[in-house]
From TrEMBL:
InterPro entries linked: Acylphosphatase, Acylphosphatase-like_dom, Acylphosphatase-like_dom_sf, Acylphosphatase_CS
Active site: R20, N38
Pfam families found in the cross-reference section: Acylphosphatase (PF00708)
Keyword terms of this UniProt record: Hydrolase
Entry similarity comment: Belongs to the acylphosphatase family.
Species annotation: Sphingobium yanoikuyae (Sphingomonas yanoikuyae)
Record PANTHER family: ACYLPHOSPHATASE
Name the record gives this protein: acylphosphatase
Amino acid sequence: MPAVARHLMILGRVQGVFYRNWTVETARSLGLTGWVRNRMDGSVEALVQGEADMVDHFVTLAQHGPPSAKVARIDATDVPAEALNGFEKKPTA
């Protein structure tokens, strides 16, 4: 099955609640590749790619995130898949 990729903008109370660490752990456990980073506006941005059903499952889980997070919404956009290895945390942008 070909890889799909989604660019996510996660809004709400998602910084200072271990959301990025949760994202890395969850994405890796689902066999996904990509990255996650905080944004200066208080949101979290991620690129998640892999099998379509696993990407969809990740987006569903991300609606809740870690226990202290309060996700208001996720804006998801399909993007071309990239050649990535693993899932990493990037510096704030």
